[in-house]
Amino acid sequence: MAISDGNKPQNEPVGGKAIPRRRPDLAEILGKFNDAWSFLECGAFYIENQDEDTGLGPGDGMVCLRHGLALFSVAYDELDLIAGAKAQPG
Fold first, then answer.
1. How far, CA to CA in Å, does 55 sit from each of 49, 58, 67, 72?
2. pTM score above 0.90
C-alpha cells in the first residue's frame, strides 16, 4: 500500500469504489526530499545547540530527525513507484 499526501493510503475503497493509483509527480517527490532534508537540518541544529539557556533540548532535535526520516521514506516509496512503472513494459 502506497502512502500519498497527508499519509492517506492510496487504492483504498471509498464508498465501495476503488481509487485508481495516481502516479507520483517527480517534482512533487523532489519537493518531499527537500522537506525531509530541512527537517534533518532542523534536528541537527537542535542537537548541536542544546543548552539550558536557550531551552533547546535533545528531544526537540529527535522529533525533527524522526519526522525528516519519515518524509524521506515516503519520498523513496513514491520514487520506487515511478521506477517500477518505467521498468514495466507497455
1. 10, 10, 20, 28
2. no
